[in-house]
Amino acid sequence: MEAPKPGSLNRQQKDLVDWFFIRLMNIYGNRFRTQFASSEQIVAAKVEWGDMICGSTREQLHAKLEVVKREGNNPDLKWPNIAYILALSSGASPTGVNEPAYRPPQTSLPSPGALAQARPSGEEALANMRESLLDSTTECRKSDRRSNKRGRRSSDHTPAASCPGKAHDPSQMDCGGFW
After folding, report:
1. Using CB atoms within 10 A of its CB, is residue 171 exposed (0-12), middle (13-18) or buried (19+)?
2. What are the tens digits of pLDDT across the range 16-69?
């Protein structure tokens, strides 16, 4: 694998890379100068990261650098970390991470005929649900009435295994309305 060559960027791209490094120098101050102690190191970093820096617009880079300034307590941003900075989102996220969560939802309204198509099946499903609920509450009331005739409250439930003298077929058992 070959290292990038210094002449592979055009003048406009070189200006963008220079601008980015000037901003890093201004934001990080002595930490930038400690990490990039000589002009040769700065040139090497520009050559190495130039293509990736040029993958973003000046506005996107500006937004990423603003995140760096706001997030001064972030240990990943304590020193100039070009890879981390370039990976930051430049979108709607206030911290630069998890940007999709901050995007407005992409809602699409159903077609005008979709409601008319869905209504009959929905009404049928609702009617079936109501019918099943009515049947189950009627059975519960009958069972509760039988339990109350024996002098028990409807909350006094006896498990099936402890119903003496009762058939062991669950369908034949009446143990206080619980089943």
Report:
1. exposed
2. 999 999 999 999 999 999 999 999 999 999 999 999 999 889 999 998 898 888
Measured distance CA(177)–CA(153) in Å, rounded: 10
Q: Closest by alpha carbon to 59, among 102, 93, 16, 12?
A: 16
Closest CA to 57 of 16, 97, 8, 24: 16
Q: Burial code of 29-41, b = ≥16 C-beta within 10 A, e = fewer?
A: eeebeebbeeeee
Distances (CA, A) of 106 to 89, 95, 98, 103: 19, 22, 17, 9
Report the distance separating Cα 21 and Cα 34, nearest Å. 14
At what angle are helices 39-53 and 11-28 packed, to 10 degrees? 120
Q: What DSSP assignment string belongs to 76-131?
A: GGSS--HHHHHHS--SS-SSSS-GGGGSPP---PPPHHHHHHHHHHHHHHHHHHHH
